[in-house]
Structures are given as structure tokens and as C-alpha cells.
Amino acid sequence: MKKTLLAAAVVAATPAMAQTDNPQKDLLPSLETIVVVSSRQPEAMRQVATSVAVMDEVQIKARGFTALADVLRSMPSVSVTNTGGMGKPTSIRVRGESGYRTMVRVDGVDVTDPTGTQASAQLQHIMSADVGRVELLRGPQGLMYGADAGGVLNISTISASGDPQVKLAAEGGSFDSQRYNASVGGGSDVLDYFLGASYAETDGFNSHTDTELEQDNDGYENTTLHGRVGWNVTDALRLEAVVRDTEATNEFDQCWGAVQTNDCIGDFEQTNARVSAAYTTERFSNELAYSNTDVARKNYAAGTVSYDTEGEIEKLEWLGSAKFNEVHTLAYGLEQREDTVLELSRDQWGAYAEYQGHYGEGLYVTAGVRHDDSDDFGDFDTYRVSGAYVLDVTGGSLKFKTSYGTGFRAPSLFEIDYNRQQNNPDLAPLEPEESQGWDAGVEFYAHSGLHLELVVFDQSIEREIEWDGGYVQSSGESTSEGVELIVDVPVADWLVVNANYTYTDAQTAEGAVRVRQPENMANLGLTFIPVSDLQASVNLRTADGARSRTDKAIGDYQVLDANIRYALSPALTVYLRGENITDEDYQEVPYYRTAGAAGYAGVEVTF
């Protein structure tokens, strides 16, 4: 199978006589690309001084993976660890920071699971179906979100306009996997809507390497429903509602009931909802939004309930901006948040303001402050300043950028409650972690489409919370510093190269290497478009230098994936995808397997 898939990718890569007018436009960054993740306001990339990576629907489909986490692996500074296949616990690390330090939002809704040990998003349950765009803000620059050292991952579902369009898709492949999704969307100047439903399941493989317990395949099943509707009441007033529901069942290994067993099942359900009203004029914009995230989780060990919990996050947000003139803009916001897990709860208020200035032809600066008031931990102030300068040069534009930000993470309700229940005098009351970080970089955008980017980053966390028979805090600073190099090259009309390399030196306060964070990570992606209806993508990713919790080396690896898409007609597309086509034997988490060579085929219908 792996040789067949690789051969197919090579054949598809051979350039044909026909060429598209501009096949690279969706595969190359641009200074005029609009992003919202940096300041929660639409901005062209030329204005953004923070480090932001963008992946749109074309790029997501080119990779083809069922789970969104697998798509994210090709982004700069992103490390993903998974414990045994689709649906198993998955963590995303950005610039060396643990996954729970990165906020994840879907269509404006914070999808954090408050019941988790460190309260993070359950990324393994977010499928790639119907995802239209991903924006990643790297570093402690989440002034508008209250996020800290990891960053912000902003996910948007497919936007629709015009006549109603129906999309159907089906896929099957290795591990008896199958995936189906259906969506309908459309809109006018007054009303727009999108409804999507997706289903994915796999028999999986035996995830844990322990051979003393029973051996079995660890499957997974996921059903996700998503709806979004917007009503432009007037030219200035827009109302919008978003609802998302995910139900998943995961089989896994290594749990405890009466005895230790590999007969483990986890049921997960998460419902997200958001309603908003936005009023926008030429100079002012204001949005009032209410969102709710509700999570229920129940685990079974050999058929007996071993874990049962539920939690909720409620947010009321006011977001706005005032454009005083072409030079000066003020962005501002107010947030009230309540987290609840069973009988535990926490209330927190936050307010921020950021000055945004545009001076001369190419200088952009920001300076902002945020104040948070938690009923558990009192007041905290965080800051962000940034600057970007765009200079026109022969053949393109040079962009110089730098930013500095601070943040904090309050201990999760679980961490606090666990220590409280131990009644152990050695476990001191927990305090919030505080983070700070800066980065500086230079980018070159050529008229030809060539994009080069070099970024240096350095960030640290004080009082990092760690596990040591309970939750304790380090006395020093944990650090993460490194370099990001990004290269996007339109080699020819039929070939685009997208590559990135990240060096990360991430250390604990005691000077040990951060757990499971590779020192070196790289992606080399080739996209071939010999004719407008055919696209073949090949991506090689590699990582080395990761260490386990016991400071043992986790093996280096190189994984090759390929995806071929062919449009038989405007309404019908077929594709073939190969994952780990060289059958690399590797681990991301010690004692947990990863999938070997796998192949998948699918069809998409649009009408």
C-alpha cells in the first residue's frame, strides 16, 4: 500500500502542458491577508506585529486529515502529541508551552473544557470537516483574550454566501475507518447561514505497548453538528447565532476500576452556543455577545463507571473599537466569565484597552493593558506593546516586527480542589502563573509570491504549576526560547514549496528539558498543480530532541504524508490520501503507539 501511494503521488507531481492562471494564490501568504486573531478586529497582515500563521480551506483540504490536530502539525512552532490514534488525548504545544496554555476558539466560542486537569480544549474531538480557516497567534500576546504563554488558536467554519450550496463527502480507509459529512450554506445581503453535520469512526489499533494486559483495538466515534446564522438587520446592525454539539466515544488503554485494565471507554459531550449583536459604522464598532460551553465526561473501566464529571463556562463579552482618524484607533473590551465544575465555581471579570496607531506610510504600533479580577486570586494586570514597519524595496516589501506581552494563568478548579482534598501541609495554596515574552522578526514578501520570515522568541513563566504528589509551584522561571524560519516559494506555475523550521530550547525552572517538546521541528511541503483540476500535496515532517518525564530521549522521527485531489467535474472531486507512507515506527508519548502506513480514499459532491 505505501509504495502504491508514494508512486501515485510522484506520478501526479509530473507537470502537464496545461497550467492555471494563478494556482499559488491560496498557498502563499500576503501582506493584505485579513486576520482577526491578533486584536479581535479585522486587520491586514501588514499591520500585525505579532506572529500569526494562517491556514485556509484550500490548505486544510490539501492535507486532508480527519482530525484537525493532524492538520496543525504543519504550522510553524506547533508540536502535537497524541496517545494512540484518532480520538485519544491530544495536546498542542506552541513555542514549547504546554497545550493548556493555548486558548482554542471555534466561531468565537471558547471551547475550553473546564473539567480537565488543567482546563484546556479537548483538541482530539475537533474534526477538520467544515473548517474554513485557522489562525494561530504565537506567544503570550493574547491581551484581548486573557490567554497566556501559549497563544490563541482561532478556528472558523466555512463561510457561505449566494445561492444555497450543498456539500456531501464520504471517505473510507485503513483501520476500518470511515467519515461522512454534509453541509448546506448560502446567503444574501440580509441573511446568511451554514449548517454542517459530520460523522467519523475508526476501529483504531492497540494504543498502548504494555503486553501484560489484554490486547485490543482502541476505536473512536465522533458526531459533530454545527450551525451558524447571521441576520443583517440594517447596514450597521448584525445579529448572529452559533451552536455546536460534539458527541464522542473513545476506547483507550490503562485505566483503573476494581483492577487495572485495558477495557476502557470514555464518553464525551460538548455543546457550545454563542449569540451576538454587532453595530458597526465607519468609525465605531461594538459587539455584545453571550457564549456558553457545556461539557459532560464519563469513563468506564471494564463496564463500571470510573469517572463522571460535568462543567460549564459562561461568558458575557463587549468588544469594540473607535477609529478617531486615519492615524489613531482604540480597541477595547469587557468580559465577565464564570467557570463551574460540579459544585465548584469561579467568577472573573476582565477589561482591556489597546491603542493602535498608523504613522506615515508603513509604521504600525500598538500599546495595550488588561485588568482581570478573579474572586479566587484578586487583581492582575497584563500588557502588550508591538510595532511593525513595512518598507517597499526592489522586488517586494520588507516587514520588520517586534512585540512584547505578559499574561497569567489561574490554577484550574481541579488543581485547587485536588490539593485542598489532600489535607497535606506540604501543598501550599496555589497562586496564578505569570508569563512574559517577546519576539522580533523580519519578513520579505516578493511580488512573485516568495515569502521569507525569520522570528526570534523568548518567553518565561514564573511559579509554573507542576505535579509532585500534588500540585506544586516552581520557585524559579521556566523558559522557552528559539528561532522560527518560514519559507514559501512559488517555484513554477505548477509547484509551490511551503517549509518551516523551529528550534526550541524549552527548560523547566530546574534546568531540565520540558517534557515532550522537540528541540528541532521542520516541515517540507510540496504542492503540485499540473492542471487546474489536479492537485497533489506531499509533506515531510520531522522532529528530534524530545525528552520523557523521566528525562529519557524520545526517538527522532520523519513522517511522510501525501494527498491527491482530482476534480472530475465542478460538482465531483475524488481524492486519495496516504499517511506515514514510509511506515515510520515512532512514538510521540512514551509507551503509546502511532499509526503505521495508512491509506484512505474519498469523494466530495457539491451542488
Automatic annotation (TrEMBL):
<dbReference type="Pfam" id="PF00593">
    <property type="entry name" value="TonB_dep_Rec_b-barrel"/>
</dbReference>
<keyword id="KW-0472">Membrane</keyword>
<feature type="domain" description="TonB-dependent receptor-like beta-barrel">
    <location>
        <begin position="175"/>
        <end position="581"/>
    </location>
</feature>
<dbReference type="InterPro" id="IPR012910">
    <property type="entry name" value="Plug_dom"/>
</dbReference>
<keyword id="KW-0732">Signal</keyword>
<dbReference type="InterPro" id="IPR037066">
    <property type="entry name" value="Plug_dom_sf"/>
</dbReference>
<keyword id="KW-1134">Transmembrane beta strand</keyword>
<keyword id="KW-0675">Receptor</keyword>
<protein>
    <submittedName>
        <fullName>TonB-dependent receptor</fullName>
    </submittedName>
</protein>
<dbReference type="Pfam" id="PF07715">
    <property type="entry name" value="Plug"/>
</dbReference>
<dbReference type="InterPro" id="IPR000531">
    <property type="entry name" value="Beta-barrel_TonB"/>
</dbReference>
<dbReference type="InterPro" id="IPR039426">
    <property type="entry name" value="TonB-dep_rcpt-like"/>
</dbReference>
<keyword id="KW-0998">Cell outer membrane</keyword>
<feature type="domain" description="TonB-dependent receptor plug">
    <location>
        <begin position="46"/>
        <end position="151"/>
    </location>
</feature>
<keyword id="KW-0798">TonB box</keyword>
<dbReference type="InterPro" id="IPR036942">
    <property type="entry name" value="Beta-barrel_TonB_sf"/>
</dbReference>
<keyword id="KW-0812">Transmembrane</keyword>
<comment type="similarity">
    <text>Belongs to the TonB-dependent receptor family. Hemoglobin/haptoglobin binding protein subfamily.</text>
</comment>
<feature type="signal peptide">
    <location>
        <begin position="1"/>
        <end position="18"/>
    </location>
</feature>
<keyword id="KW-0813">Transport</keyword>
